[in-house]
Amino acid sequence: MAIHRVNTDDYPEQLQHKATRLREAFSAFTDLQPEVFPSPPEHYRLRAEFKVWQEKGRAHYAMYRQGEYKQPFIIDEFTVGSELMNRLMPQVLEAVNDSEVLRKRLFSAEFLTTLSGDALITLIYHKQLDEEWEAAARALQQKIGYPIIGRSRKQKVVLERDYVTERLQIGDKTYQYKQVEGSFTQPNGEICRAMIGWAKDACRDSEGDLLELYCGNGNFTIPLCEHFDKVLATEISKVSVNSAQENIRANGVTNLDIVRLSSEEFTQAIDKVRPFRRLKDIDLDSYDFSTVLVDPPRAGLDNDTCAMVARFPRILYISCNPETQLENLRELSKTHRVERFALFDQFPYTDHTESGLLLVRK
């Protein structure tokens, strides 16, 4: 069975349904209609992972319904994927099927692309990768013009590089980001641009300093630096912190420090519960934080972090799970009111909704 094109004619109605559902869910806390940021109806997804279904000596891209791993859905087109991804997919598959070395025991293929035209392909195997595989992969890399990575258990073979470079135009400025394979990046590039633009607009008249928790590779942090005197950001992933440091240098930012701490650890640090060696060069008392930006995982803010965040005059809360954001808002609404409210349609044609709130102290 093949997965064909999405029905783009249904998209406006589906998006309106999401907006209505989100407005009703938050109606106890705000009368605002959400600012709605639609996705492109096609070719919006910049990264994707495909299972590789092997049958009669041929490999096919496939996906599975949850719990149904014996019935693959063979993919002959993937119109939700970026145009670059769709251009590369058949080239990679043809090369795999022309090479026993590349095809044998291949079980997954990952594509990471950017709006600015970069790409990276990861081939994942149930076998150790040897010199013969490397030679075949280098030939494929030269043919398609983009880097290949090979992975198997406890093995990662990088032929050229393990990252892509994204360049995002936000207003009249272009921001450059190193995005490392396997680390988190926003999957919908145009929605990522919309989210950053919305956050910048919400912070346009800010004063003082910014704290950001869960900063990743600096996706929001770097564009927001121009609106604050100083910025301090935290992130727990070592890979993301290293990427963020490179992105700071690439964008010429001079008023931003990033430290590798979890939100729970930073809460302990700012409350002086215990010191952290990773903060030895950071004087927390020197900051005049006016705004905090949080973009937590689906679980939302833990109770201690939520209480800490409530001390700030302004809270910018980006969420990939409005249900947990709403749970946090029940506490935050005791001290703050909703100033702005947004819907970001990161995943069209699904029930998934992402939302943004600007909360201002009452």
The third-level CATH topology of the largest domain is Rossmann fold
Average pLDDT: 94
Structural class: alpha/beta
Approximate strand percentage = 25-35%
Binding site for S-adenosyl-L-methionine: 186, 214, 219, 235, 295
EC number: 2.1.1.35
GO molecular function: rRNA binding; tRNA (uracil(54)-C5)-methyltransferase activity, S-adenosyl methionine-dependent; tRNA binding
Active site: 320, 354
Structure description:
With 362 residues, the protein is α/β, with parallel strands linked by helices. The chain has two domains: 214 residues, Rossmann fold (3-Layer(aba) Sandwich); 118 residues, OB fold (Dihydrolipoamide Acetyltransferase, E2P) (Beta Barrel), CATH 2.40.50.1070. The chain contains ten helices and 18 strands. Strands 1-5-4-3-6-7-8-9 form an eight-stranded mixed sheet, with helices on one face. Helix 6 links the parallel strand 12 and strand 13. The protein is globular, with a radius of gyration of 22 Å. The model has no long low-confidence stretch (mean pLDDT 94). Belongs to the class I-like SAM-binding methyltransferase superfamily. RNA M5U methyltransferase family. TrmA subfamily. It catalyses: uridine(54) in tRNA + S-adenosyl-L-methionine = 5-methyluridine(54) in tRNA + S-adenosyl-L-homocysteine + H(+); uridine(341) in tmRNA + S-adenosyl-L-methionine = 5-methyluridine(341) in tmRNA + S-adenosyl-L-homocysteine + H(+). It comes from Microbulbifer marinus. Dual-specificity methyltransferase that catalyzes the formation of 5-methyluridine at position 54 (m5U54) in all tRNAs, and that of position 341 (m5U341) in tmRNA (transfer-mRNA).
